[in-house]
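Bug #77: duplicate submission created two jobs. Keeping one. Sequence:
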Amino acid sequence: MALPFVMALPLLIIVAAGVYYIYNEVTHFMSKSLVRNKVVVITDAVSGVGTECAQLFHKAGARLILCGTSWDKLESLFDSLTGDADPRETFAPKLVILDFSDMDSMEDVVAEVLECYGCVDVLVCNSSVKLKAPVQSISLEMDRNIMDINYFGPSTLAKGVLPTMISRRSGHILLVNSIQGRLAIPFRSSYAASKHAAQAFFDCLRAEVEEYGIIVSTISHTFINASDLPPVEEPAPKQNALAAFIAKQMTHGLRPSVLANEVMQTVNRKRKEVVLAHPIPRVALYLRSLFPPFLFAVLAAGVKDSVLAG
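Kept job's structure:
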């Protein structure tokens, strides 16, 4: 009996490897076929995540509308996408200047986006601006600028493309948000507030448009590490060990390519909510809901220790 088992083990390994290979190939094929010919809008397409998303959707045969604040950078991205591309398999992207800090231009931007193909199948709201500072040092002007880029911009653009999606009874709106839209940490008051606002808006929107067959997704991720080298940690004052550990985990780097792949998978599988975070931030989310006094105490202790050490 021992000999047949020994002989069967390598066979089982080979079969398992074959099944895994076939699964990956089928998944890869499906990821292409599901977005092929779809009109996909990507905001801040020249950022690390935006560029990775543009490459994935372009290779999959989507009709891209790439948005950004710099025409030179958009043209550079256009050249990199179309340089070695097969025109029989891909579409040349359309380029649109979009600056969420200029809300007065949003009506014209929405019109230009819709003019490209007459409709939008997938809207990827990727734009974001960060700020780390004590509350008392943040001016009202800075607060408003962050809210424009992180909240009013994406929500206004979503409202702009919504009528065509409703009339066609199809569409997908995806917000690349942040875990700080669900969990606020000290010294990110304006940023966390804008992300909480965006999270709430798209949660409400999801329920309101479900009857029209429109999917609304949010991806809550941790810190994006866009550099090739590990980030250099700034010297920090000695603080509460638990608070320091949580803070470090909250800012643990996430590669843009990983997030872009998640964006593609979320669109393909029509997921409504994704949390892309390490275990500690996930635990902190549960603590925020189940044991908020404990989490508040830990965060406050970390701030107090930082101030005392400084």
